[in-house]
Amino acid sequence: MRPPSTLLSTTDRWDRTPPRREPRASPRDWSYQMANESLYDRIGGEAAVDAAVDVFYRKVLSDERIAHHFEDVEMNVQREKQKAFLTFAFGGPSRYAGSSMRHAHARLKLSESDFDAVMEHLGATLQALNVPAPLIQEAAGIALSVKNDVLNR
């Protein structure tokens, strides 16, 4: 009698071996979330955006470098526009129907230092809300992607 390992041909052994399954990523796995969820969802959705906008404007309005840009602005309206824009920009449900970045900022004649101050406050806001550093970097990348429009370049 032949040894058991030679009873089946190589082909037969492979045909009877169940297919190898790749492990599935769990929804808790960071790479799974990065690939399948928007930044909006990963930072906490509507509640997180609402909180971020409120904290952000408290910081901006207390900063003498840039607060003057908001002197004639109805802040409740501005907050709602910003919440809608960030929801859209971060991949949430689109409800932004405002002006383009270039058009919305054209009359302000913003400088590079103005933009830098806003970026500083965005980062500080997200840190204060315990947003993980990789997500803060992703948000900064989104903000930087509209820099030339905001500065009307």
Features:
single chain, 153 residues, mainly alpha, Globin-like, 9 helices, globular
In short:
By secondary structure, this protein is an all-alpha fold. The chain is 59% helix and 0% strand.
Question: What are the SSEs and their pairings?
Answer:
Elements: H1 10-16, H2 30-36, H3 39-43, H4 45-61, H5 75-89, H6 101-105, H7 112-128, H8 133-145, H9 147-150
| CATH architecture verdict | Orthogonal Bundle
Indicate the CATH topology.
Globin-like
Rg of Cα set: 25 Å
Structural class: mainly alpha
Q: What is the overall silhouette?
A: globular
CATH class: Mainly Alpha
Number of strands: 0
Regions with little confidence, pLDDT below 50 for 5+ residues: 4-15, 17-33
What's the mean pLDDT score? Answer: 80
Assigned CATH superfamily: Globins
- N-end to C-end Cα span: 84 Å
Work out the strand percent: under 5%
SSE run: HHHHHHHHH
Number of domains: 1
Helix percent band: 55-70%
How many DSSP helices? 9
The biggest beta sheet is recorded as: none
Structural write-up:
This protein is 59% helix and 0% strand. The N and C termini lie far apart (84 Å). Helix 4 packs across helix 5 (75-89) and helix 7 (112-128) packs antiparallel against helix 8. It is built from nine helices and no strands.
